[in-house]
Amino acid sequence: MFVLLIVLTIVANSAAGQELDADSLAVFTIHFRKALLEEVAYQLNVTVNTTNVLKAMLDDCKPKMQKQTSLCKECTQAACQKSPTFEDYLKLANPYLYLKEPLDNIGGQLGDAVELIGEEASGFYNSLNSLGNSITSFPDEAKEIFSNLNKELGKLDDYFKDLGDIIIDAGTLVKDLFDDIFGKKRRRRTISDSEIRLRDLIDPESVLRALIARTMELRANIDPDVRACMEQCSSCTPLLQPTQQEIIESVCGSQVITLNNTIQTMIKKIKTAYNYALDKNNPIVQKVVLNIASLEYVHYTLSDVEITAYLANAYTSYQTDIDYPLLNLPLGGRKMGLEYWTKITV
């Protein structure tokens, strides 16, 4: 009854748009950042798993490229005594190198995360720590990529040692968020769920056709005589495609291209979200305006809430699609932090 009287008093004495006061906004922003950082850690785990898959595909692709170039060369030598050079075609990239910059960036700003949200960073820290500890099962070429992150995590061991070892498990929070935004249930999202989410990320029907970044130093022009000779050989046809992407796709299949595009996109989004979350010059949340007239009295949620957040390098105001829990400020911040992730475009 007491809670109901408070809510009725707010409704009776508030204008349609009531802005969160400074203290409430500070609490809201801590939990907004917390949710966004935990999403960054989750997506980083998924992206590392995806990179492992891509590396295996590229390892499988290389002998296919070698075989294709050998067959082409055999044919051209027999048909017209030409011997194309394919050295550049076989220089496939190491996809683990894609991860070095974002991992170093995350490690370099861990102190800022602790400064901005304090002990609320424990789930973020523990999930990164779990990822760092998992590298013993990775190829040697990948382990060095994680060295700076692990070094920076080690500096925070004492700070977080008494806060438990729970790894990110958004659980009901994320279920409620996606119920709010999409109106349907989604699978509970935990780090152990990454294989299920990986299948969602790599949808061959919706995420196709991307350039594999610098995998080959393809010469712009092939000698006209050599090209004319190659055109007589069906084994050379895949190697005469006009772009890097089409050559790899012809020889190794489209999934290599799909996976590479997924990784590149997620790395950009992870880096963008992390930098926004920890930007001290442009605090990620500027204001939150509640329309008290939209209060639903059974669950005490608001359906009309506007947030002004730093997005796409400028402050942007938008209506949230979630039902804002009026009596649970931290939960509202976390829900809207997760929603913010979905609005980041790269």
Descriptive account of the structure:
This protein is α+β, with helices and mostly antiparallel strands and 346 residues long. The chain has one domain. It is 56% helix and 8% strand. The chain contains 14 helices and 7 strands. The protein has helices spanning 2-13, 22-80, 97-108, 110-117, 122-133, 140-143, 147-154, 157-160, 171-182, 194-201, 224-230, 244-252, 254-277, 329-343, and strands at 17-19, 285-291, 295-296, 301-302, 305-311, 314-319, 324-325. The strands form 2 sheets. A 4-stranded antiparallel beta sheet has the order 1-2-5-6, covered by helices on one side. A 3-stranded antiparallel beta sheet has the order 3-4-7. A hairpin with a 2-residue loop joins strand 5 (305-311) and strand 6. The model is unreliable at 1-14 and 166-220 (pLDDT under 50).
Report the helical percentage: 55-70%
What strand order characterises the main sheet?
1-2-5-6
Give the strand content. Answer: 5-15%
Main beta sheet strand tally, sense and closure? 4 strands, antiparallel
Give, in order, the helices and strands: HEHHHHHHHHHHHHEEEEEEH
- Report the uncertain regions: 1-14, 166-220
Structural class of the secondary structure composition? alpha+beta
Instruction: Kindly give the count of domains.
Output: 1
Number of strands: 7
- General shape: elongated
Mean pLDDT: 79
Distance between the termini: 48 Å
The DSSP helix count reads: 14
As a whole number of angstroms, the C-alpha radius of gyration is 26 Å
